[in-house]
């Protein structure tokens, strides 16, 4: 627990004033850390002890919500075994105990290991609405995916699902993260566990399309051979189709779409309209508002309706 108090959910974070959002305090530094600092924004004091199991449960929750407040509130931790005088003066008899100070005065507090939702509500009473932590975590996971870091993305999505089991965006995201990491079986297991009633949810449909495309790409031959086949015969539509799948797997969405559009331009009926159907699957995997989707959809409309 002592190590947790020093590090929390990572290194202490600072606000615009440069003071950490989460820190330990002592009897000697309490005046500066709490009384003086509370003139700027509310300061929560977490009274804890190393032997206190509920304290260990509450600590990471407190730190997470305080950091989500982004400087509107700070958290100070005091080990009551090492520093009993101040909690004694404040009448702290049971821990964990959290007391909020503002303008040098204790104004609110609670005892016990509350769930995150109640801790969040407590802090919002002090500072107003906080940013939506689910949206922030989803954005962080999507950013990791965009960088090709499926491992980090899967960790964030999995943590989100532990707290929000019904969050379909996290379910679909976890499957896509496994796809990015090349773990197709794990991705399929995630998607197979989705109830049929929500199977067509956009997040799930996007993930399933991404898995199918990735499995397709794994069976495509060498890119050099595909290019050679097209140089030899520009009407080798199967080679162009396979090239489109491979280009999409490599993240070259515009090039992949253009390859399929070229097939449609040359022979709309090839493989029972297979190029157009594959392009629509790309759109589903990329999302409707992806720039590559928007661009290719305009080109497709021009081909079909000109």
Description:
With 306 residues, the protein is of the alpha/beta class. The chain folds into three domains: 130 residues, 3-Layer(aba) Sandwich (Glutaredoxin); 84 residues, Alpha Horseshoe (Serine Threonine Protein Phosphatase 5, Tetratricopeptide repeat); 86 residues, Tetratricopeptide repeat domain (Serine Threonine Protein Phosphatase 5, Tetratricopeptide repeat), CATH 1.25.40.10. It has a five-stranded mixed sheet with strand order 1-3-2-4-5, sandwiched between helices. Helix 7 runs antiparallel to helix 8, helix 9 packs antiparallel against helix 10 and helix 10 crosses helix 14. The N terminus is likely disordered.
Task: Summarize, please.
With 306 residues, the protein is of the alpha/beta class. The chain is built from 15 helices and five strands.
Task: Record keyword descriptors for this entry.
single chain, 306 residues, alpha/beta, Glutaredoxin, Serine Threonine Protein Phosphatase 5, Tetratricopeptide repeat, five-stranded mixed sheet, 15 helices, 5 strands, 58% helix, disordered N terminus
Beta-strand percentage?
5-15%
Determine the CATH topology of the largest domain. Glutaredoxin
Helix share, percent: 55-70%
Mean pLDDT: 87
């Amino acid at each position: 627990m002592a190590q947790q108090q020093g590090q929390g959910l990572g290194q202490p974070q600072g606000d615009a004033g440069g003071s950490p959002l989460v820190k330990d305090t002592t009897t000697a530094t309490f005046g500066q850390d709490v009384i003086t600092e509370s003139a700027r924004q509310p300061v929560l004091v977490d009274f804890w002890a190393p032997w206190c199991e509920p304290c260990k449960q509450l600590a990471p929750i407190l730190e997470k919500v305080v950091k989500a407040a982004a400087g509107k509130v700070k958290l100070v931790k005091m080990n009551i075994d090492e520093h009993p005088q101040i909690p004694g003066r404040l009448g702290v008899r049971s821990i964990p105990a959290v007391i909020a100070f503002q303008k040098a005065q204790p104004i609110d507090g609670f005892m016990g290991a509350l769930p995150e939702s109640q801790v969040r509500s407590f802090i919002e009473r002090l500072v107003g609405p906080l940013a939506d932590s689910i949206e922030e975590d989803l954005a962080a996971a999507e950013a990791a995916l965009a960088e090709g870091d499926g491992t980090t993305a899967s960790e964030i999505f999995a943590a989100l699902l532990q707290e929000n089991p019904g969050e379909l965006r996290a379910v679909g995201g976890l499957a896509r993260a496994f796809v990015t990491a090349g773990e197709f079986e794990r991705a399929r297991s995630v998607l197979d566990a989705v109830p049929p009633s929500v199977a067509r949810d956009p997040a799930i449909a996007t993930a399933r399309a991404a898995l199918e495309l990735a499995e397709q790409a794994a069976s495509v031959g060498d890119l050099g051979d595909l290019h050679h086949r097209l140089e030899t015969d520009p009407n080798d539509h199967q080679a162009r189709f396979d090239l489109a799948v491979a280009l999409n797997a490599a993240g070259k969405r515009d090039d992949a779409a253009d390859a399929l559009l070229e097939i449609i331009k040359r022979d709309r009926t090839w493989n029972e309209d297979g190029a157009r159907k594959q392009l629509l699957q790309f759109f589903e995997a990329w999302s409707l508002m992806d720039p590559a989707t928007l661009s290719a959809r305009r080109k497709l409309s021009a081909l079909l309706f000109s």
